[in-house]
Amino acid sequence: MKKIKVTELEPGYKLGKDVVSPDGLVLYPKDNIVTEKIIEYLDKWHVESVYVKDEEAEVVQTRRDTEKLVKEKYNKSVEKVSKMIEGLESGETIYEQEVKETAKELMDFTEDYYYFFKLLTQLEDDDNRLFQHSINVGIYSSLLARWLDFDDSVVQEIGLTGLLHDMGRTMTKSNDQATSQSKENEELDKEHPRKGFEIIKSQTKFNDNVAKGVLQHHERMNGEGYPDGVKGSSIHFFARIIAVADVFDQMTSVKFEREKKGVFKAIEHLNKESFNRLDPLVSRTFMNRLMDFFIGSKVLLNDESIAEVIMVNRDEPGRPLIKVRDEFVDLKKNREITIEKVLDV
Ligand SMILES: [Fe+2]
To answer: Backbone phi, then psi, for 119, in 5-degree steps?
Structure first.
């Protein structure tokens, strides 16, 4: 047992002794698990320190350390990719070895993906958006490849393709999507998969899977994609995986869309797209695994109330069964309620 200041207290700690008010009233008994609410009240009552049990303190500490580590690793990867993309813009060639190493590092996130998802719910967009997007798509693609049971070498190759998928944007000069609203820019932007493909073909020895994955990541199963409008099984499976990762990351980012759409709306969108535009197996796998992660999380609804995610409706993963106060609400039936934001996972 150790004594710690209330300012250092975190949810998850277990109280080692009763917390008693100055006039002898037991505010919280020994063994109570500390929550955010409790910390708030302790602060209100001017309690300065409390006793906590070592074991739980250790678990919380380990969790916090891992979170910090994952965040550091993520920022480092973003930095590496920014150097690579900026290098390309100023006429440098791709350093194959470096890209391979970064892709290998991205695979680490698939082990700690709980922390990666948590980090993503807290991430703020900034000018690094294209770099962040490249990393995120690299990680989602690696995760998808893992969930689809590919060997490590393929997982790494798919991650690498995700990492490189948008580098053609450096050549189409529309890497800042916020300024690419005009028709002309839109047309130019549609060339970025082909530009990326050409860079890979001319500058690297990466195999055809990688090049095809980059070329076809905006192709859609029904033939409505670009640049060639190919459909169904003519789309390389690398590209079908990148497409799901790409759509999801764009839907959950601020800059690429006008407003932040949130994870659940992104899932609903993926679900719709899985019927005609995206590969159904790839998108279902992604939605199901992602939703399992959000079971038990606290979410904010469009009527401002807070709810807990209880169970996933497999045929409509973006609209789960939730609990609002003591009432269960099935969002599949209550269509007017939407989940706006994830508050805590
Ligand atoms: Fe793209």
So the answer is: -60, -40
